[in-house]
Amino acid sequence: MKYKTVWTKKEDVERKWYIVDAKDQILGRLATKIASLLIGKEKPEIVPDVDCGDYVIVINSDNIKLTRGKELKKMYYRHSGYPGGFKETRFDRQMELDSTKIIEDAVKNMIPNNKMRDRRMTRLLVYKNSVHKHGGQNPIEIKL
Asked: Within a 10 A sphere around the Cβ of 139, how many other Cβ atoms?
């Protein structure tokens, strides 16, 4: 009997929709689970050169938590590219400005830095509250 290895092609990938509630969740633990869903690690047909991940909707990003008092210690850095253009923002200030960026940054840094990273990040949809416009896709709720 001869066995044949089945290699997943781009056309064969079936993407599911998942919804994750970030209310009172720890940022790092939530981000690792989301990154795993975006990459498609739970799927048996995953291959390294094909993007097999799913869509992930994150709701209630305003209620994300950190551990051990990091709300006042964690910093977010950016640079404009000009001399003296280095800016830093503390976690509590970033929560006031845009809490969705916190989750997006955490997940982006957990996805491998390759040509598929931007495509995977487009499938991450983060909302500040529990209202989202993707009910028609019948997302599966993930409990963490």
From this structure: 20
